[in-house]
Design brief:
The chain is built from 14 helices and no strands. With 307 residues, the protein is mainly α. It has one domain. Helix 2 packs antiparallel against helix 4, helix 5 runs antiparallel to helix 7 and helix 6 packs across helix 8. The longest helix is centred in the N-terminal third of the chain and has 26 residues.
Length: 307
């Protein structure tokens, strides 16, 4: 029988696999929907999926909310928007201005920022073995994203300060969202409720952004003329990469440290790799193979617990 910790590991592996497959799907779907409309569409589908489930499964969710202090209410709303519109929005908009290579390097800072935030604000312990594993996995990520520059002399790198700052802001938003969510879990708010709240408030805030940037005719036509495959891409991001993955992540962080949970994010490129090869026809180079191997070593080192 799986322990709570082992169950959390399994949930994190599923989550990272879903998120690892997401980039090629996002890249394809953005051909038909601008980023803000794509996110509004995604958050809408996630919200209408999660709300009925919340009402059916958790009968006492309103009772728990009623006993929250006013400050927790405000933090809940802000954190929900932080984890949806701000974090994911900054990532999408940043990639419109900067290269995927630079974006990947900046996103590789996420587990480190989360670990540091958990250490200072949640007083979570980081063992020397976890520090070493964290650093090893980070080096593996850097090898993967820098390898094209080292192995391909014709590779051009476009630098954009605005795009890089947006992606870094999204990465920092994820770290803050993770820490505040952990505090909400300690207030006995369930992972299901936190996930539902994130997509609900994300939909409201992103809708406001979308309608101020696009008229109703453009929104309607974009949805109408998009092929079925584009809508399937949104469904994947809404149901699997959205509702399911975030719920599994929240469930996992309820029983293990967020610094440990976010170490699994380094495994995402390993799941991205086969999809990129098959769908995007990208080449597999030596640097990518070495980087993936080092990431596996780092995650393994950090996750091996002493008795």
């Amino acid at each position: 029988m799986l322990t709570a910790r082992h169950s959390s590991y399994l949930k994190l592996l599923i989550t990272v696999a879903i998120w690892g497959i997401a980039p090629p799907i996002i890249k394809y779907t953005l051909r038909y929907f601008p980023a803000d409309l794509f996110l509004t569409y995604r958050f809408f589908l996630s919200a209408i999926l999660m709300l009925p489930i919340l009402f059916l499964i958790e009968k006492d969710w309103f009772h728990k909310l009623a006993h929250l202090p006013s400050g927790a209410w405000i933090a809940l709303i802000i954190n929900s928007i932080l984890g949806s519109t701000i974090q994911i929005g900054f990532l999408f908009w940043g990639l419109e201005y900067t290269s995927a290579l630079e974006g990947s390097i900046i996103n590789a800072l996420s587990p480190i920022l989360v670990a540091i935030s958990g250490y200072f604000f949640l007083h979570e312990k980081i063992t020397n073995k976890e520090k070493f594993g964290l650093a090893t996995a980070f080096i593996g990520s850097l090898i993967i994203v820098i390898a094209p520059l080292l192995l391909n002399q014709n590779h051009s790198l476009k630098y954009s300060v605005i795009g890089n700052l947006l992606i870094f802001a999204g990465t920092l938003s994820w770290a803050i969202y993770t820490v505040i969510s952990k505090k909400h879990l300690r207030l006995h708010l369930s992972p299901l409720f936190l996930t539902t709240a994130m997509f609900f408030f994300g939909f409201i805030s992103m809708t406001f952004i979308t309608v101020t940037r696009h008229n109703s005719y453009f929104i309607f036509q974009s949805i109408k003329v998009a092929p079925v495959s584009a809508h399937l891409g949104v469904l994947y991001m809404a149901i699997l990469s959205g509702s399911l993955a975030y719920f599994l992540y929240q469930s996992a962080t309820k029983y293990i440290e967020i610094s440990e949970a976010n170490l699994f994010l380094y495994l995402a490129p390993i799941f991205t790799l086969p999809i990129s090869l098959l769908v995007l026809k990208e080449n597999l180079d030596l640097g990518t193979i070495i980087g993936c191997f080092i990431i596996l070593i780092g995650v393994g080192l950090a996750e091996i617990k002493r008795r």
